[in-house]
Amino acid sequence: MQYELENLKNFEDSETFKKIEIIIQEISVNKQIKEALKIINFLEEKLSFAQKELYQSLLIKLKFLIFPLFSELEILEFFKKNLKEILKFSKEDILEKIKLKIISLPILERNGFKKELFLVLKDEVKKEKIEPKEVIFLVNYLKISSEEELEEEILIKNDTMNEEQEKIWKTIKTKKQEREQQQIITTQSQTTSYNLQVDSKRPIFESSKPKTESIKFTSKIMGPIEELKNFSLNEFRKLGNTVQESVQKIEEKINILEKDSLLKKAEGIEAWQNTEINKLYLEIGRTSLKKNISISKVINERINNNLLTLTIDEFEAITDLNRRLRF
Q: Contact, 99 vs 151, CB < 8 A?
């Protein structure tokens, strides 16, 4: 369903607010994820700072709908700034979205994310003077859930899913299967590596016949998704003459994948999220939240400690890129 937004001008007018409120209500009821993204982008572009305060509750409702598509850092910030509003949603909805996000993360990163979210909840409950009993359902889940939790509980397909929800469901299920397959491949590779070390004691020249097995895996042609996943910070900086050019080329690589399918684009986004660059971005953001200091101060600390770091321009450009990289 398409919504006429461009004709809306005076956002402080009560009639305009009412129209947007009705549209958002309809989107929320029908769980129209693509439309929610369009309206979020539209409102954040058109509204002034003061107007965003007026529309805050409506924006939170839209952002909650697309919650599983946020990066870990965005989710932590979302909870930090809007915990009272988030708690107005049902406990079931909140837990469902947290679970969806957690199972989309690499296994080794899940407990770290749960711990960080738990700390944000703890701080905000104290700061905002929220009754602990209001968040106990979420705290208990974050404390008792483990990596062995049955993902099938979350991945069971619901017959009431609409088209957009089904795409997300399929993406999560596909990535789960790929992770399991990768673990099998990794185990096999480690076994092969061990056997090769034992066999290396044999004479180097056993016959004049070329050893095709020794050159079988000397090169690997990477597809666009593998290329994205293996991007280093150094390679990212060489993509363009400016930070904005580098970011634009990353975005173009991901958007090209959408021509194949939304699933391919989802895989491209996940590949980007697992790059050295994005992990560094998340680490800097988490440190800023944990220490309650500015991003620029975190970056300066990393420079002083001779740690790999982004520049402030790179951090801000990647923040904007990650906001755009949603379905």
A: no
